[in-house]
Amino acid sequence: MKIPFFKYQGTGNDFVMIDNRTGFFPSSQELIEKLCHRRFGIGSDGLILLENAEGYDFRMVYFNADGREGSMCGNGGRCAVRFAHDLGLFDTTTSFIAVDGPHEGFASEDIIRLKMSPVNGVERHEEYDFMNTGSPHYVTYVDNIEEAAVVEIGKDVRYGPVFGPMGGTNVNFIQLLGENHISVRTYERGVEDETYSCGTGVTACVLSAHLREGWNGPVKVETLGGTLQVDYTEKSDSKFDDVFLIGPAVRVFEGSANI
Ligand SMILES: N[C@H](CCC[C@H](N)C(=O)O)C(=O)O
Questions:
Q1: Which of 93, 138, 151, 255 is the most buried (most CB within 10 A)?
Q2: By CB neighbour count within 10 A (0-12 exposed, 13-18 middle, 19+ buried), where does 232 fall?
Q3: Which residues are known binding-site members for substrate?
Q4: What are the start and end residues of each CATH 3.10.310.10 domain in the chain?
């Protein structure tokens, strides 16, 4: 069987994108893991199915590279909005549903703006902040991000005694660069490696920096794969709404996979 697919990336977070509005895709963990594999498959951080959903322009179903359905993926959401736009499903504004609830997306030629779920609180510790921006994120601060042991410390935290038993977490490292400007690197659960960029992670980092530095959005974020912006409104103590993840999302290539 041949599986037609598209490849998208958003600041270097890359996804196999499949138009599954007919429901043809023979979904299984094994198949998805294989398609995402960088040696035996197409190669990506995750796979996204675009499906029909009543009352919305589409449904986004996101799987991590390990083939398991993941929690929300911010860059994947931005790429799904770009894909829906490329398919002609909407003109400038879309509404879609994902695992964490409804989202709105706005497309311009270069930039996709994605409305994230509201954030209902931040667990604050001396060494780190922890919050759910659609996916769980641990956020910590370093002086020199280039030297951060992202994979080593990331694995320790992800599988460690606090987060391991609750299903693990994504682990983010921030270096403050100046006012409203940070650099972020992320260890991603489900990929079990550092990725070039993580949208829900970048969002968590900006909200953490807001609480610690007293900044107001938008905040500019450098990742290994490019620059993102996050804007937000703090509703009340550590609760955020109107959270937007903003940046490029592009189609890279299309093809068909033999399975
Ligand atoms: N790359 C994604 C995050 C995926 C979350 C996933 N790693 C999980 O925790 O299930 C993003 O741009 O937000």
A1: 138
A2: buried
A3: 13, 64, 74-75, 170, 188-189, 199-200
A4: 2-110+249-258, 122-246
Cis peptide before 248, with omega less than 30 degrees from 0? Answer: no
Residue that has been written with the tokens 């189609």 in this structure: 251
* Structure tokens given for 54: 């009543």
For a substitution probing ligand 1, which of 48, 68, 170 has the most ligand atoms within 8 Å of its CB?
170
Q: Determine whether domain 2-110+249-258 maps to CATH 3.10.310.10.
A: yes
Helices (H), ranges, 87-196: 150-159
Q: Is 170 in the pocket of ligand 1 (CB under 6 A)?
A: yes
Find all residues with CB under 8 Å of 187, minimum gap 6, and list them: 150, 151, 153, 154, 155, 157, 158, 170, 171, 172, 193, 194
List pLDDT tens digits, range 34-68: 999 999 999 999 999 999 999 999 999 999 999 99
**Interface ipTM > 0.85:** yes
Q: What superfamily would CATH give domain 122-246?
A: Diaminopimelate Epimerase; Chain A, domain 1 (3.10.310.10)
